[in-house]
Specification:
The chain is mainly alpha-helical. Helix content is about 60%, strand content about 5%.
């Protein structure tokens, strides 16, 4: 069904995301099945290919409860400890209103204007320009901002970034991404574990066997092992693609939500232009970078890119929110202090804008009053 309007798109995206997440969870059982195929081939190398499939299916049914319990336990650990792990990697620490009054007030005003519970505010001492939201429930929600971003953006742009992260929280994106990263981590961990066991066991299995035995084993068992390895590789790649698809599909909506909160599309565009290519956090894992407002770590052919390009996001804001794209923006010099950058105005001055610079006298206006579209502008009180 087609989606019309921001909130309809959000609801439609949630439905698709749940289906993708269910498919991601199902990849765990694909990995278990592949592992069972390898185990059966290692135990007996003289059976037919179809027999190995039947035996592996039986093993999968027996291991199904244990695999499910293991995945749930893994998710539970992430539920309680993911924030501490992220803070330990990035160096994030909570700040109060007294420590960061400017940032705290901007975030609090946005929350009050929309009736959103105030998340924790955290700072990462890093020159990179980035921000991210984390948490799986109201007690855990937090918005983390780097000092580089805080120094580079003005209040309008910082408010837009905070609105972007609050939208991620309000839309349930942070919970979904954390769970997706954890499940994909299970798939990756299991794949690596099976590969290590397989190669180590293969070396031990080959010792002391005659060449005729090896030739006999190279029939059904060899084909099964190749099939299992290919199955695991495909499952691992799909887990990455699903993870990245979940992240990409939500950035456009978060940008739109920021504009809805601030009513200032140009601020979001200017913030993205400043952040573009400057958000690398060296200490952060790929999972943390997926939750950031921009991830400069891109894969080949954009297949493994976790975020849409800044150009695509800006184009969407220009087309649907009426913003103006200033193009790539330089950062203020380190010694510029609190001076603001010379950014394009949100609205070009019109013929009745009294904030324009004084104009020189014009013909037909002896007093030097600028001419309007219908002659000299005069004060209505004269």
């Amino acid at each position: 069904m087609a989606a019309y309007g921001l909130y309809t798109h959000i609801a439609s995206n949630k439905t698709r995301s749940i289906l993708l997440l269910a498919g991601l969870f199902g990849l765990i059982y694909v990995m278990v099945f592949a592992g069972a195929l390898i185990a059966e081939a290692m135990n007996d190398g003289y059976l037919a290919f179809e027999t190995y499939l039947a035996l592996a299916w039986r093993d999968l049914l027996q291991a199904l409860p244990y695999a499910t319990i293991g995945a749930v336990v893994w998710i539970a650990i992430a539920y309680f400890f993911h924030q501490k792990i992220i803070d330990a990697m990035t160096g994030g620490h909570a700040v109060t209103r007294q420590e960061q009054p400017r940032l705290y007030n901007l975030l609090e005003n946005l929350c009050i204007s929309r009736g959103i519970p105030m998340p924790k505010l955290k700072i990462v001492d890093d020159p990179a320009l980035n921000a991210f939201a984390t948490g799986l429930n109201r007690r855990q929600y937090s918005v983390t901002v780097t000092t580089g971003l805080l120094n580079a953006l003005d209040d309008r742009e910082m408010e837009a970034v905070l609105g972007h992260e609050l939208t991620h929280i309000r839309n349930g994106d942070v919970q979904l991404l954390v769970v997706a990263i954890v499940i994909a981590g299970v798939v990756g961990f299991f794949a690596e574990l099976v590969f290590r066991i397989f190669f180590h066991a293969s070396w031990r299995f080959g010792r002391g066997r005659s060449s005729s035995d090896d030739n006999r084993r190279g029939g059904g068992a060899g084909a099964v092992i190749l099939f299992a390895v290919a199955l695991m590789a495909v499952a691992w790649i799909l887990s990455l693609v699903v993870r990245f698809a979940l992240s990409r599909s939500r950035e456009f909506l978060a940008d739109a939500g920021a504009v809805e909160l601030t009513k200032d599309p140009d601020a979001m565009i200017c913030a993205l232009r400043k952040i573009e290519g400057r958000g690398e956090l060296p200490s952060a894992t790929s999972g943390v970078m997926e939750m950031c407002i921009d991830n400069p770590r891109q894969g080949f052919a954009n297949l493994f890119a976790t975020h849409p390009s800044v150009d695509a996001r800006v184009a969407a804001l220009v087309r649907y929110a009426g913003g103006h794209d200033p193009g790539p923006l330089p950062l203020p010099a380190p010694d510029s202090g609190d001076e603001e950058m010379d950014l394009p105005q949100t609205r070009p001055p019109g013929p009745w804008d009294d904030t324009q610079a004084p104009q020189p006298p014009v013909a037909g206006s002896p007093t030097g009053t600028p001419l309007g579209p219908w002659g000299p502008r005069r004060s209505p009180w004269r």
